[in-house]
Structure formats: C-alpha cells, structure tokens
Amino acid sequence: MANVSVAAEWQLLYNRYYRKPELYPMRWKNIDLSRNKVACAPFGGPIAVIRDDSKIVQLYSESALRKLRIFTSSGVLISDTVWKNPGGRLIGMSWTEDQTLICIVQDGTVYRYNIHAEPIEPNVTLGKECFEQNVVECVFWGNGVVCLTEGGLLFCIPDFKVMRSCQLAETGAEDLPNCMAVIEPKYTVSGNVEVLVGIGDGILIVDEDGVQTVEGEVVQGPVQKMVVSWDGKYLAIFTHDGRILVTDINFKGVLLEYNCESALPPEQLAWCGLDSVLLYWDDTPLLMVGPRGDPVHYFYDEPLLLIPECDGVRILSNTSLEFLQRVPDSTVSIFKIGSTSPAALLYDALDHFDRRSAKADENLRLIQKSLPEAVEACIDAAGHEFDVSRQRTLLRAASYGQAFCSNFQRDRIQEMCKTLRVLNAVRDPEIGIPLSINQYKLLTPSVLIARLINAHRHLLALRISEYVGMNQEVVIMHWACSKITASLAIPDPALLEILLDKLKLCRGISYAAVAAHADKNGRRKLAAMLVEHEPRSSKQVPLLLSIGEEDTALMKATESGDTDLVYLVLFHIWQKKQPLEFFGMIQARPLPRDLFISYARCYKHEFLKDFFLSTGQLQEVAFLLWKESWELGKNPMASKGSPLHGPRIKLIDKAQNLFAETKEHTFESKAAEEHAKLLRIQHELEVSTKQAIFVDSSISDTIRTCIVLGNHRAAMKVKTEFKVSEKRWYWLKVFALATIRDWEALEKFSKEKRPPTGYRPFVEACVDADEKGEALKYIPKLADLRERAEAYARIGMAKEAADAASQAKDGELLGRLKLTFQQNAAASSLFDTLRDRLSFQGV
Q1: Which among 375, 476, 582, 826 counts the fewest CB atoms within 10 Å?
Q2: Mean pLDDT, rounded, for 200-218
Q3: Where is the Vps16 C-terminal domain (predicted)?
C-alpha cells in the first residue's frame, strides 16, 4: 500500500515518471508574483522581490515607495531596503553564483546588492550607448548578462566578478529581436559568449567578432521563444505557429516536435533537467513536453515562476514552492506499482520483518544474488527523497539487506546518512535552502557553508563544517567579524570575552584578521586587545603598526628574533616619528639598535650621526667622520691638488676634536691630528711638485718619495714634523738613494757620521739593487761577523764568507753557508774543513 501511495503522486511522460513534491508552503504574506519582479537564485538560493514599475497595480496598505525584499526559498524575510536608485525603470534582476543580486535599469547602470540588501559599491555602467538608447531586455546566465538596447545593440558583461562590459557585433536588423538566448562561454568553441537572436524568419548567432545566420530546415518562420539547456547542448524553440522544437545546439536535427494548443508565445519556457521542457501561459495549465508521448498538464489557479535547476525545476507560486523532477530510477524500481525488482522486494522484506512475518526471509532468499544492487538502490533512493520518514525507511531497508550481504561497501550507508543530515538541516523552513542531492554534490559542501555564512547562519555552518570534517576557521572568523560589526553598544572588554570564548575553539585561527576588522570598524582598543592573542609575529606585528601600536610592535618583533620583522617596524617608525622620538625607542633595545646602526652605516650616515650625538657617543661620530674622509679620498677628483683635500682635512679635524672630548680615546685623537697634519703636507707637496703621488701614502712613503724626487729639504721637514727616529730615517734614505742608484750620494751619506743603524741598510740596499761592487764598500764595515759572513754569501764570495764565519766561531753558520754553496765543491770542502777545525778546537 505504501508503494501505491508513493507512485500515485507520479505523472508518466512517455516512459519516464515525474513527481512534484511540495518543498514549502510560502511563509511570506501579501506577495503576488503577478505584481512584482522576482529573481530566484539557483541551488535553493534566496528570492528577491520588488514591485514591477512597468505595471499599474493597486496599492493596499503598503507604502508608495518601492521596497527590494529578499526572502529565503521558504518565504522567510531575510532583509529589505527602499529602492531609490536613479536610472529609470528596472529592466532585469538576477543572482550571481556567489549570491550577489544584479539589478539593471534603463540607462544601463548595474546596481549590486548582497543577500542582506546592502548595496555593493561601486555601481557599473554598460556604456554611453546604453545610456543614450536605453536597455529594453536582459538575458542572464550563471555569472553574466546580455542586454539589448532600443537601437538593437547588444552589450555583454561576460563575468560579474570582473564587471567589464563589451559590445557584441551589430546584427544590422531594423527591427528588434523577437527573443534571445545565451550560450555560456564554457560551452562555446571560442570561449566567448554567443547570443542566439530570433529576428525575422531566422536565428542569428552573435558574438564579439561577428554574426552568423543559422542555416537549414530546422527553423522555418519566426521564433517566439528560446532557451538553452543546463549543459549547453540543446536548444528549446517555440515557433510562430505554436510548435515547440528541441534541437542540438548546432541545429543538426530536431529531437522533439510538439504542436501546442496556442500560437501565443509562452510567458516562460524552461528545461526540466535534460528530459523535458516546461511551457507556462497565464490562466492555462502548466505544460510539460517530452521526447515522445502525450504531454503532462499541471493545473494552478495562481501565477507561477519557473526556476530551472540542474535536475529539475522549482515551481514558485504565491502560496507554495514545489520541485518538479524526473523520478530517479532507483526510486522507480522500488515504488513503481507492481515492481518485482530486487530493491522493491528488499523494501517489502523490511515491511514483513517489522510485522514479524516469515515472508521477509522468503524475499531475501529470492534476491540473494542481487542483494548488493538492491541495497545500493535503497541507499540511492533515500538520497533523492525530501520526506525524512521515507529517507529513514529506505535506509533501514538498506541496512537490513546489508546485514545479509558480505561483499557490500560498509561505509556507504554512513556516507548517505551524513549527506542527508546536512541536507535535512539546510532544508528546514527556517533556513530555507531546499537542495536536492544532485544539487548538493554539484554545489559542494564548502560553497554551501560559505552561503550559510553569508546568510549569518553561523551556528549551522559551524556544525556542518565540523560534521563533514572541514576547517571551521572560516566560519568562526566570519562570525567574529559580523559580531564586531553588529555589537557597537557592547564595551570592548565584554566583547573581547565573547569573541575569545569562540575563537579559542579553532586552533591556529588568525586573531590578527579579526583585529584588523575591529580596527576597520573604528574599535582600535578592541583591535589592540585581540592582536595580543595572535601567536604568529608575522601577522601580529604589521597589524600593530597599522593601529598605531609602534612600541608594542617593536617589542613583539624583537621577541620573535626575526630581523626582517624588526626592520619592517624600524622603517615604519622611522617614517612616522620625529628623529629624537625614534632614537629614544630603539636606544634601550639592543637588537633594533644594532640593526639600525648596521643599516645606517651603509646608507644613512647623517642620520646615524644624529643618533650617536643624541646618545652621547661622540667617538662613534668621530669614526663616521673619519670614514667619510676616506670615502671622499676615493673620489677621482681628489687628486692633482684637488680642492677636495680641504673638506677631507676638515672632517678629520672634527673627528680629532670629538676624540679629544673623551679620555678613553687619546690615541685616536692623536692619530687623527697627525693624519690631518700629514694630509696638509702631502697636499702642499703635490701642489709644489704637480704630481699626485703623495696623498694617502704613509709617512715613510712620503719621505722616500721626497728623497727620490731630490727634495731632501721636504723629506727633512716630514722627519722633523713627525719625529721620525734616526734609525728609521737612515733606512728610508739609504733605500731611496739606492732606488735612484745615486751611489755617490749614498757613499757620502755613509761618511757623514757613524750610522745609528750600522752599515747593514747600505749592504742590503746595494745587494737588492744587484750592485756587488757597491756592497763591497760596506760589508767590511759590518761590526757583526755573522752579518758580514751572510752578506759575503749573498754576493757569492765563499772564501770571505767562510773566513768571517770562522772568525765568529759559529759552526752552525758554516753549515748553513755550505748549503748556500752546495753546488760549488771547492767551497763546500772549505766549509767542511773549517767546521771540522772548530769542532777539533772545541774538543
């Protein structure tokens, strides 16, 4: 009997059954679809209603001001707002995929609203031509629209996410089209929008690049109405003579043809899945036509709105919302009158089992081989049911059959139960999202949760996301932001407690994002309290900066040890604060201070000097000045007596004065003073000699260069100024004279007085210059016999070297000298003899 009552509600169209269960009795009051423009979102989405200003209607107790009202699919009011938008009459209204309401007025202005009837800025216009010619018709699809102007021009917004309009090719027709239909970009070969335009006795295909005429015998005579199927493969056409045709999108053949009773075009033409087409006229039954067989009529005494879905059509009236769909095969196999399929017998077996009848076992034995298919059919049929008690019964039948089925996937029933619990939760009239299972799978759980969040159904969204194992952070984040926006009267500490109580439910949630929203809403104190709970410094620090908590941001960045974050804070404070305030903030913090100094040493010397002066580090300023003087010396202009030497000396003088103010840097002060003095002398020498060879050389090099140039007076002046010792003076002058090979002057210099260094510098200078004869003048004068022996050896005089070493009585020296002359057999023998003699004398 249960099977009979279920199947009795079905209608047969050729060999396919259709059913039309009522989803909701509409909860709204005083809504007449015939007096309003209505836009219904697919996938059980919201319904937008506004009074149709193109009709003359009688006002009852309502205001003359038009209101845009948004309802759930069950007729529960979500929000409303007064319509005050300029631009002329409202031409078209539709929902986008992300549930944004698009409203297009006569002058081509596009107004957008969210589900809470809040306008979304900015408004967009379709262009100057639309403004001048006025829009007369709009055809929407999932995420775009095509508009027709009074001049016959077509304008398109291919994607509402981009909101950029473009003009399609001109048709060249004098009259306006009878009808239009759109092939979505994802179904076209070119990837662009294609518009099917019924003009005259044919159909044109219009896109951005051109216009094509549909050829063939499929279309004969004017077309009154067209609609493209959900998958973009088929086209339903209502002709001028009252015929309904279905062809493929390429017009290669007629798949369905039916003569309607009326030649008047239907007010609405819609696909019911992919198997049938619905036609609706006022004051006549709703007509459903299939590929074959007699059509089905549905009788209504009130206006209707057809809402196509992927697997059927929602039928909206003033009082109810119904869902017309093809009955799934699994449901037919169970509930069809007289069905003996395994699924029907399994369902019947459960009924006998509940009545404790032995026939339950008999049914199971009959379908033992087909039991897995029967269980699967019961599970699938339960998924397609809207009635909860019928879902439960079908799932019990599946569970009953699964107990006798060893090779069935055990978690299949659990998965279906989970899906149905989610669907039943959102189908509740208070929520009003009547999704079918096919729509749910196509929509995906994540999109469903996002829609619940946007509708401020946070608790349900949280429970569903937890139930299906999805991340709850998005739900809690949106709830927290919405709570902040809506809680202007709640004090910051109280609101913080409320927020933290929920935010702690989700580990790793971004407190910084919630704090940023609080700051955006003007609650800076709340934002500062929230960001304290953010564990990630990379998110915490930038937000602290944005809300003006620079000191806290610097502390958190320092604690993190992330130098990039510290630099981020430093640069931010540097730009916003006065220098002295900035210096005070970093002085007591070693890491920021050191990072600032490292950066400023490379790029901001002047600012770094200000910092050191403000903190009393005069020696650091002096070192910077000294470094600047060296950098100035690298300038190519700092040569040939350039005036840049003057600024260099002044910088060094300043450094010397600063060093002098601290007792700990006496050495640096003296060094800077002498450096400045040396630079002055070198500068004078370059000016007088016109040779850029003195500056930045050492004192020794300066003296040596003066002697080489023959400027002995200048060399003596440098010696006197810098108190060069006599020993150093002799070494420098000897080698300088040897460099210019002035042997006569060298000899004269050696005889001026007894050299304080001895004659070793003279010998080495002559040997280095490869002048053995000159070296022989000074070697005999060497007082140290060992030095004399080594000097003779360096100029190759073995006998004299051996004699000097023998006189020194140094056997080790004789051994070393033997190695020097090891290729000379006679010399080696001499050294051996002398060493043996020394050894004998020692014994």
Answers
A1: 826
A2: 86
A3: 509-824
Phi, psi of 63 (to 5 degrees): -75, 155
- The structure's pTM equals 0.74
Q: How far apart are CA 253 and CA 207, in angstroms?
A: 23
Distance CA 271, CA 314 (A): 11
Question: Which residues does residue 40 pair with via DSSP β-bridges, in sequence order?
Answer: 47
* pLDDT, tens only, 525-558: 888 888 888 777 777 787 787 777 777 878 888 8
Q: Which residues are CB-contacts of 454 (< 8 A; sequence separation ≥ 6)? A: 99, 114, 115
List, for residues 316-371, the tens digit of each pLDDT value: 999 999 999 999 999 999 999 988 899 999 999 998 898 888 888 888 888 888 89
The answer to whether 554 and 585 are in contact (CB under 8 A) is: yes
Euclidean distance between CA atoms 356 and 279, whole angstroms: 49
Q: Decide: 34 and 297 in contact? Cβ < 8 Å.
A: no
Task: Give φ, ψ of 771 to 5 degrees.
Answer: -115, 85
For the chain, the distance separating the N- and C-terminal CA atoms, rounded to the nearest angstrom, is: 140
Pairing type for strands 320-326 and 16-19 reads antiparallel
Angstrom distance (rounded) from CA 235 to CA 225: 10
In the DSSP assignment, the letter for residue 119 is B
Per residue, the 3-state secondary structure of 534-557, as one string, reads CCCHHHHHHHHHHCCCHHHHHHHH
Burial of 633 per CB tally in 10 Å (0-12, 13-18, 19+): middle
SS3 readout for 550-611: HHHHHHHHHHHCCHHHHHHHHHHHHHHCCHHHHHHHHHCCHHHHHHHHHHHHHHCHHHHHHH
Residue 806, both tokens = 């023998």
The rounded radius of gyration (Å) of the Cα atoms in the chain is 50
